[in-house]
Amino acid sequence: MSLQTKALPLSDFFNTIPPDIASDICTVTQFLKNNYHVKSYIVGGAVRDTLLGRVCVDFDIECYGISPEKFDRAMRELGAQGVGKSFFVYKYRQLDIALPRREKKVARGHRGFAVELATEEQEASRRRDFTINALMYDLEQERILDFWGGLRDIEKKLLRVVDPDSFVEDSLRVLRAMQFAARLGFKVEEGSCRLCRTIALDDLPKERIFIEFEKMFKGSYLHYGLYYLFALGIADKLWGIEIDRKSFIKLAIVLMHYRKNFIEALYPYYFLYIAASCLEMERQQLLDSIGTPGSYYKKIADAPTLPAEIDCAFVARTARKEGIEAFVGNYHPDVRRLAQKLGVWDEPFDSGAKPALLMAEGFKGKALGDELERQREEKIRSLNEDCSEL
Questions:
Q1: CATH topology of domain 1-162
Q2: CA gap 205, 291 in Å, rounded
Q3: Mean pLDDT throughout 104-112?
Q4: Model pTM score
Q5: What backbone torsions phi and psi does residue 92 show, to the nearest 5 degrees?
Q6: What phi and psi values does residue 148 have, to the nearest 5 degrees?
Q7: If you ran DSSP here, which 8-state letter would residue 325 be given?
């Protein structure tokens, strides 16, 4: 594909960038230009996000026209730290600064790549996963360089593989397709879908799998993530399950309809809780399979399943130790409504049972605990008599 360009004034490019990061970009690129005659580009997701009007805080700068030895010296003078010297990558504050490179698969796993320097922009951009991530912003000419049709695919809201040969060498990219779809609301181009389905995922460590899943969990288009979880063969390869049309529609509707009720503190947990319930999957196995950290087990594994009919007793019982605000099933409108009415949204349910009074009556030890439990359950059961009024 021939090179396409798009003019974009520097002021417009920096418009969505936090001022401190914009200042750092200018510092780095001017230092390299004035002292080493380096040509610098902003590359990757930062260019994509700028065009989409999204705030981005992760910026990659790619530097041309300098040897690795001089680049290392320049980075030391700048005060940047090497974070991947074998990949020619350095860190300066929130910026990643690197030399252009090409990669070749030489061993199993996500890190099994040999790296060589690239000398041309198109050659370096070929290693990117999707066309929308292969865009380059020329800081001097104030224009976007597009070798693979990324500008067109952004307009079409499409994820398209750059180079099929290099794409299949990194199985993590299948999961990246899923999480990009969920975050951006983009569709995966059909040929790219077919390619993803041919790629095995058994070489990926669970911690890498989880990182991509967590990005998907926080996306604004969870139903897209759900679709590609199955359409790309990920669910089949990780869990050995497929989904019928009826179950997919049911789950997608829940994710779309109730996402407005998600609270920020629980964003990472809703998807798995809802999916496990709708697909009747064993939660512990689901969490184990993608290497979730302990917080997921605490929020999801032992959380009660929403019953077909949500009543006051269920809400009160769920709120016995902490308010419904901490319950990952709080997205359901009936749960929210009854929690507010019962005063247990951000406070635990108070049954009125007082340990001090029971102790004064002679209860102690196990008998005290049993009586407290009996009174609490009696109060909870009695709530349903008033539920119709709530």
A1: Beta Polymerase; domain 2 (3.30.460)
A2: 9
A3: 61
A4: 0.88
A5: -130, 110
A6: -130, 10
A7: G
